[in-house]
Amino acid sequence: MRKISKTLMINLFLISLLTMLVGCREDGTFIFNNNSNHETRITIDRSSSTISPNSTYERNWSLSYSIFGVDDRNFDLTVRSRIFIWNDTTERVRVRAGSTNRKRVSDFYDAAGLDIINDSNSFTITHVYISPATDMFWGDNKLSGTIRPGNNRLWNISDGKWDILIVDNWGDEFAIFDVDFRIGQLRYYRYTGFTRVSNADQLKRVKVEHESCRDNENYKVEPI
Q1: In-domain check, residue 214
Q2: Taking a C-beta distance cutoff of 8 angstroms, is the pair 162, 190 a contact?
Q3: Fewer Cβ within 10 Å of end Cβ, the chain: N or C?
Q4: How do residues 156-193 score in pLDDT, each as one tens digit?
Q5: pLDDT digit string, tens, across residues 110-161
Q6: How many CB atoms lie within 10 A of CB 90?
Q7: In this structure, how many other beta carbons lie within 10 angstroms of the beta carbon of residue 54?
């Protein structure tokens, strides 16, 4: 009996040693969390997937490990988001056997977001000006086309303070000043066709000259 037990122990030791030398296989896992309220598209080595808001993507690779080392898998991860990312962002990612690498869409944010919503019943937004708060002039129209009632338009904006001017099809102007944007923060402006201002050009110049600040009750902030 002792001899059998000893032989069994030797065999188990040899099997374990052989396993360590030859190696085993175990998954390396990559998890991507779309922790935002917008669809996000990721590409892993030219294979693309669209991830719904507040959802998770998972991918596994069968990798080996042994006494000589641990296998890994390196790939290019490209992230495209509707807002908060200026351009497609690519990062080199490494996954090792027996481990999990996690990424979130918020890890790739490099901008803030502005969402202008046309909440009016019959007015159309024809021009949108987004100008640094320190500039005395509005600059160029940032709106391509128009925003009809019930529709909206999104812009990416660098962090800092900005002035926003909306002009509708009646030529009425709606301005808000010194709006503070932060990376990863989405701000909404709900245009109703009312609360217009007079002579927005002059207001902006005076505001910059006197470093004044104006608030607007239609201006909302929503954290991500």
Answers
A1: yes
A2: no
A3: N
A4: 999 999 999 999 999 999 988 889 999 999 999 999 98
A5: 999 999 999 999 999 999 999 999 999 999 999 999 999 999 999 999 999 9
A6: 12
A7: 11
Quick check: 159 and 189 in contact, CB under 8 A?
no
Give the separation between CA 13 and CA 92, rounded to whole angstroms.
40
Neighbours of 49 (CB within 10 A): 12
Domain of 116: which CATH number? Answer: 2.60.40
CA atoms of 112 and 117, how far apart (whole Å):
17
Quick one: 44 exposed, middle or buried, by C-beta within 10 A (0-12, 13-18, 19+)? middle
Q: Which of 108, 127, 153 lies at the terminal end of a domain, its last residue?
A: 108
Q: Measured at the alpha carbon of residue 163, what is the angle toward residues 162 and 165, in degrees to the nearest 5?
A: 145
Distance of alpha carbon 191 from the chain centroid: 25
Single residue among 48, 79, 108 that ends a domain in this structure = 108
Residues 173 and 204: beta-carbon distance below 8 Å: no
- Secondary structure, 3-state, the chain: CHHHHHHHHHHHHHHHHHHHHHCEEEEEEEEEEECCCCCEEEEECCEEEEECCCEEEEEEEEEEEECCEECEEEEEEEEEECCCCCCCEEEEEEEECCCEEEEEHHHHCCCEEEEEEECCCCCCEEEEEEEECCCCCCCCCCCCCCECCCCEEEEEECCEEEEEEEEECCCCEEEEEEEEECCCCEEEEEECCCCCECCHHHHHHHHHHHCCCCCCCCEEEECC
